[in-house]
Amino acid sequence: MTDFAVLTPSYAPDAPLFEAxxxxxxxxxxxxxxxxxxxxxxxxFARYEGDRCRIxxxxxxxxxxxxxxxxPGIWLNARxxxxxxxxxxxxxxxxxxxxxxxxxxxxxxxxxxxxLVRRTTADSFAVNGRIGLFRAENAVHSGMPRHxxxxxxxxxxxxxxxxxxxxxxxxxxxxxxxxPAVVRLLxxxxxxxxxxxxxxxFTGRLHISEFILYGVFADEVLGGSIPRVPSDSLYCHTYWxxxxxxxxxxxxxxxxxxxxxxxxxxxxKSGTSPENRHAALSACAAAVSPTRQD
Length: 294
Known about the structure:
alpha/beta
């Protein structure tokens, strides 16, 4: 068993961001970086492939009944062709499928717009020797209808009664950690409860979250046996706003880096220019004392 693997689902629009992410994985971990992309996008990421990087395409992780369509981002499950599988749902499904393959203590999932700024190992997320769970307590409120719906779908797939409603915990993060063994238990639970393929049930949903599903399973099916990582951000300094960072904003963002931060995320959807993104990330990296890298 290895210590941990790094997993990134990506695609063509995020390819320009991936280079900084991958470099940070090489610099700050000893892990192999696994990248999952649609078949049409493989060539964009092939130059990174080597001893520390593996490129997987969707067909390598999915049964043959999952078929690409001429329309980008739309797939069909030949066993259940309607509704078609949307790209963002399939990306979540392949994340679960890939994570279950690892013989590792942990799998660290990082979106393409994340970079590491400090040395990271499985123990970075361990609580009393066990890989912890990211959970932001009571973070989902009634003004977050998608998150509330994701909770309801997760409970249905896991055979749990409906929740009392918000506030609910949030488990969603662009920088997250799972135990592969728990992912396998999750898949088995869905199949035992429903008598159907976990994958087909997952991809048959129009609204679902892999992180909410894993979190609800860990907390309610496993009885809370997985300890919570003591951080509401999982040590990731994030910028979610859809307004681009200007130069001053980039430096202000970097100036608010928490002393325990392992990673930084500036959302690709913010439209921040490459120059200002680089300024923010460089300032964050400079703020990390060399004595805290170990």
